Amino acid sequence: MGVISELDADVISVESSRSHGELIASFERESYDKQIGLGVYDIHSPRIPSVEEMATTIERAIRVIDPARFWINPDCGLKTRQPAETIAPLKHMVEAAHRVRARLSRFQQASKE
Questions:
Q1: Per the structure, how many domains does the chain have?
Q2: From the candidates 20, 44, 92, 98, which is the catalytic residue?
Q3: 44 classed as catalytic
Q4: Per residue in 86-104, pLDDT tens?
Q5: Domain membership of residue 91 as a residue range
């Protein structure tokens, strides 16, 4: 992670879903102190992941990456897809983000009580 930190980027966006979460595992071993967006679905696959599948990926990531520094995004490649190929998975991704944020908010609220 040291070399990546030296890039001096405010936010990096990295393919993660095609590697089946290997990158998330690296954050379990090493820390990263900047903002990062990990892809939560493979835009190059015709398969549309479920909302819950994406939410599971997001929740795994925020266990090791501070949610305040985590960006939810697809793997790269949207510009290579047609609108019909992107709308449904993007809607699922947005819904997954809403669900995880709601769960996180409820958890934070409960821990304050």
A1: 1
A2: 44
A3: yes
A4: 999 999 999 999 999 999 9
A5: 2-112
